[in-house]
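Hey Z.,

So I finally got round to the LLP thing we talked about over coffee. Here's the setup:
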Amino acid sequence: MHIEQRQIYFDQVSAAAIAETYGTPTYVYEERRIRENFRRALAAFKKYYDDFRFFYAIKACNNLAIGHILRQEGAGIDAASVNEILLARELGLGGEEVMFSGNFLSDQDLRQGLESKVIFNLDDISLLPRLLEFGKPEVLSFRVNPGYGRSNVGEFVTNAGPRAKFGVHPDQVMPAYAMAKEAGIKRFGAHMMPGSCITDPDYFALITELLMDLIGRAGQELDIQFEFIDLGGGLGIPYQPGEEGLDIEAAAARIAEVFRKKVEEYRLSPPRLMMEPARYFVGDAGFLVGRIHAVKNSYTEILGTDIGMNTLARPAMYDAYHHIYVDGREGEPRRKIGVCGQICENTDYWARDRMLPESSAVGDLVVVDNAGAYGQVMSYQYNGRLRPAEVLVNGDRHTLIRERETFADLIRGVHVPAHLRKNTR
Ligand code: LLP
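And the result:
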């Protein structure tokens, strides 16, 4: 995204053209930015450890068009559910190009996961005997809770440590792999996902060390080798203006340094190194375009827009900051103004006291920054509001990649029993 003579552009397409063609609210993604993000990250990791691969955590933005971009770039898929395995299949990816990292899987999930021959990544030791009832996976990984996690989205997205619901407890790592070996499983991997949106390279070095110590000891004691070690996602992006981003080179260098040291220390035969980021690839390549429908002067000044907790849940859910631009007004004098959506909840007053252009007026377009990850996928239909459209931009081309929902979507699958249609009780 860039601003030229106060007009906002996504690549070479103006926000005005997007709004005119597709209406608002609409998610817009820049294809070039996604590819740049992926290539920058891959080059950094490959530079320090050649046997490296990214799996894209498709939960962050599950539009197949976006999935295809990352597949073309060489990513596998990290799937959180059987439906995400099916999304991967739509992309032509299956088997060991898909990592199944579901949480509290049902028997049906376990069965379907086995049938699709994806890499199983079990979140708890108790899942292994249940999985073995249905069959033996070719490759098995455990999601390890290394005892520590962190996040720039506060406590909300800290996925390891004592307060997290995820992963195998450090004391159970050895017994988990012992049980798997005992069951005749021959190929192993290991995984963790201790936190999301971290911009400190030292954090990645620390978690790598924690995981490698647990895995290294298990490998030595049980005499098993690990084909891959997956460090999860978590590569952060800056959301606040002026905030420092992640130095991806430094993160890759620190990770590879610790990784090599531990591989040597525990005499592992060098495993493939994997990560499964999402936010780093798509977060800053996606934007939400909305419109101001009212300017309210009450206790405070409020812009009433069609962007709210239903279209972008992060601010209401995590108190997350998303920068807001007003098309045609950037560069004009600013004052403190609030921004709300159309939902009948006060959590929908999602930006308070923002320094926004004081000339902002009804009809203006607002653009929310960094909306590409955990944006559209977390939108919902509350208050009878419909999920937004999604558009992909490349150069001066723009393509609809998901239709805006219609009223038919609101009542799809709903059945009213015949007796309720009568006018009597
Ligand atoms: N792998 C696993 C197993 C995950 O659960 C996640 C994200 C990722 C990879 C990708 O993480 P990333 O690279 O994007 O940090 N809704 C929250 C984020 C939740 C993260 C869930 N797991 C947000 O909007 O900040």
